[in-house]
Amino acid sequence: MNPKDYLVSLLHVATEEQLIAAPKNTTALLQRYGFQFKKQFGQNFLIDLHVMGKIVRAAQIGPEDVCLEIGPGIGSLTQILAEASGRVLAVEIDERLIPILQENLAAYEHVEMICADFLELDLTRFAAEHRVDRPLKVVANLPYYITTPIIMHLFESGLPLDSITVMVQEEVARRMQAGPGSKDYGALSLAVQYYAEPSIAAFVPQNCFIPRPGVGSAVIHLKRRSEPPVAVRDEAFLFSLIRAAFEQRRKTLVNSVSGAVRAPAAKEAVQKALQNLGFSETVRGEALTLAEFARLADALMEGDSHG
Known about the structure:
The protein is an alpha/beta fold. Helices cover about 40% and strands about 15% of the residues.
């Protein structure tokens, strides 16, 4: 079954012409409300039902699921999530869109709209206030300029998560699933892979949006891990080490991470730890796996405690 047919099979509406996401409906709504896009919010509305089908299929939405959508816009994807799931929490920063969402989604009593800056939400309190009693499936067409902060906010918040399926800039999607030695591999790759198993579900051309973004896009599915793939003594130190390793990619690991180490003779400590782990002192961060970074972090923590 192709993605568009899969999408239609989930819907309770009579025809796809009743969907907000149908291009002519989106255009008519924007004209009726005289809506002007604001660059500060990174607004690019998806108008391709084939891509919508790929998103919902990748997210594996079912009638028992609770979905969290960040940046619902005029409700194009929200309507489809409402059709496919048991409940939708939609967080929108642009207050101009709330009346449009309320009108477009009036038929869906199980959709809750929250006008807020998602990055400023206390997600533990959010879950309690909205009586979230099961792991959430996050599905969204994210503003590209804050993709990474949103995803890390979700992972680090303690919010119960099943998965995150989001539209992001193509380059960012490639970085999230990149492995050691590739040009896309970096701190984002390691952070995402610590918390989740990433897989790109679709590449999306620019003509699938109004207005067209200046870059190619991709849908990435991040399945939350029940446990991190590595054990480490100090998670915060591990991530400070990883960030330092990739801040200046051309530097050797010894030179790049010494500042993150608390030992008095930091450079010597890093050299010794790398040598003990079987690495040359000229190795760069892009050569190490997550497990190897964890071993390096533990070795440096142990050396610091002995110092």
